[in-house]
Amino acid sequence: MGLLKPEGLGSAVKLDFNFKHILERQNETNKFLLGHLIRLNAIMVCLLFLPIVTYAAGTAEYASDVAPPQINIISPLKNSQVETGTLRIEVTFADVLSGINSDTIHLFVDRMEVTAKAVIEQEDVTGQMANAPWRIGYQPDIALARGKHELRFSVQDLAGNPAELRWNFEVTVGEGRLDIGGSNSLRYDASPVKKTMDTLDLTAQGRYRETDIRLNVTSRVSDYPGTPPDYYYNDYNFYYDDYSLGFYHQQSSLVLGCVNASLDSELLQVGLVMKGGVAEDTLGGSGGEYHWAAFSGESGSSYGIGSPYLYNMTGIGGDWRANSGLLLGGYFVNLGDSAGYDFTGFRGNTPLNSLGLLRFEVIHGFDKTAGSSGNGFTLHLDKSLTNFDWGLDYQILEPEYPDVGSSSIFNSSRRGMQSYGIRTSTTINKKQSLSMDGSISRDNLDNTLPYTITRKNITTMYDYHSESGFRLNTGYQGDFQNKAGDSISENSENNIMIIGIQQSIGVSTLRLNCNYEKTRYPEPGDTYEQLQLISSWTQPIGAYNLTPSLQWSDQKDEDGDWFKSTEARLTWDMKAYPNLPRTTIALFYRINEELDGGERTRINSYGVLPAIYLRIGLRSTLSLVYNYSNWAREGSKSRDGVDTTANLTWKAYF
């Protein structure tokens, strides 16, 4: 959770001291820390909606979650016009099944990443709900120049499903001037390893006639050996983590450094963040506008796997956007130079009058090392009515289509892939909404493998909220897989059900949530079940909010191993005074019990988690986040210990 930035202030200088002292820590503490990962859900809801069962061990590995996170734009809206360059950029996002992977959150402004300077927080004051909504907010240290700007936000859930939004807005006012701002943070760890880390963020923007120049630099220096540094001097390691220099003139731009490549493709799942350069230009005409872009640099690999391998990536693309809604475009991308891959694609959107909007993409990929090539094709038909939207999806990737990095949608070793899907969503009335998605896919398209995998998936979500303060969220996802061949016939399935209830009673709020999952593997009798529950009650008392909450989890596998966790927490939250933008203090007591391989252990832990954010005057803030946890392990390997962490941050604006 980051600092809340005072409105209307410009550049910032930050000094961050981190003192970490661990009195004793054993490897076994990882067991009781699992309680932090077990979120959701109230027992009352499960008694109403779910059967009472005994539950299985291990988390689900999230393999059954194939639905991407949901992203909502708060500000600025698509194609909107704003009258200030210091507007607040804000997005909310959530994944109700596996939850958000916080390491994959990225926000770009004009192809420059600003994630490190944004405030990212989960909208759950108790800190117990893994799939509670998230929010990211960013306000530029210096004003954005007048003209059009591009925003891009991307995130993945814990199952690796990616979601991304790109949109534009326009700043209608601005003046030519030079702005410089930045921040500096110093971190010192005393135990168990002594090390110092200093991080510098610098932003500068100026205008010369009609050309805007923007510079972003993020660098680090440390006295502790880690990854290979960019520069080494006298026991100090220097890193240039993020740097970019952009030139913007009307509808043209050139950005150098750590940038976001200009590539819009559904079938080529390649990481878009790269070190290199991007040049773009948009030419308008009476019937529409033509946009082209060229890029070159070193890029990360495909979505969803975080592979450390880097590709030399060079590409060019363009499209024509007609006023009638027609879009036609193409691209060429080279990965890995002479020993890599070439991809050529063509895509378009075309209105079909009363039938809706047709979107398509065709791609040809060539593997230079293997000397093989294959094609891919995807087609989407979207139709919107008054309160009802629906869509049809089709995709095929040929057996020889190159897989550049085992992307989340394709595995080349399975000899191609073909899928069909249908999407529906409707706003029943102002109080209710319903969405349903279904898909069928199969691989082994050339029948050269011993068996074919057929997969069926269905996802449905329902939301109801009334003016009286009652809200109901329910969801179901089922994933069914069949392996069939001459000597094999195996079936497996996974079912996930979530239920959330919220009721406002006067000024109080009651929340009950439940998440149930059951998996059946091909082996006879091999099943997995788990139930995760949480209940909370928020009661305003004067200028404060008190939130008692109870969390419970029970898991069990077919071998008789099980894991149980119970946690009671009391959270005190205050947003009472202008100079105290946010303050929380949580007291918790947790019991984790586990039976693993015949060895039974129990870990009791309790502690306090205060977080205080103090605004000093109008130009600086002070925050203190402290964590104290006392734990004891009972069993064949008895242990006890204390974990203590303190983070003190001071930030001044000018």
Q: What global shape is seen?
A: globular
* Residues in helices, as a percent range: under 10%
Mean pLDDT: 77
Main sheet summary: 28 strands, antiparallel
Number of strands: 37
Number of H/I helices: 2
Radius of gyration: 26 Å
SS-derived structural category: mainly beta
Strand content: over 45%
Q: How far do the termini sit from each other?
A: 23 Å
Regions with pLDDT < 50 over 5+ consecutive residues? 1-61, 301-309
Structural account:
The chain has 654 residues and is an all-beta fold. Helix content is 2%, strand content 62%. The protein contains 2 helices and 37 strands. The chain has a 28-stranded antiparallel beta sheet that branches. Strands 3-10-9-5-6 form a 5-stranded mixed beta sheet, with no helix packed on it. The protein is globular. The model is unreliable at 1-61 and 301-309 (pLDDT under 50).
Question: What is the topological layout?
Answer:
Blueprint (H helix, E strand, L loop, with lengths): L11 E11 L6 H9 L5 H7 L20 E6 L4 E3 L6 E6 L11 E4 L2 E2 L5 E4 L11 E5 L8 E10 L5 E10 L7 E11 L5 E14 L2 E12 L8 E3 L2 E14 L2 E9 L12 E12 L3 E13 L9 E13 L4 E9 L5 E11 L5 E11 L4 E13 L3 E10 L19 E11 L4 E12 L7 E15 L4 E16 L3 E17 L2 E13 L6 E15 L2 E14 L4 E13 L7 E15 L2 E18 L3 E15 L4 E15 L1
Parallel strand pairs: 3-10
Antiparallel strand pairs: 1-37, 2-4, 4-8, 5-6, 5-9, 7-8, 9-10, 11-12, 12-13, 13-15, 14-15, 15-16, 16-17, 17-18, 18-19, 19-20, 20-21, 21-22, 22-23, 23-24, 24-25, 25-26, 26-27, 27-28, 28-29, 29-30, 30-31, 31-32, 32-33, 33-34, 34-35, 35-36, 36-37
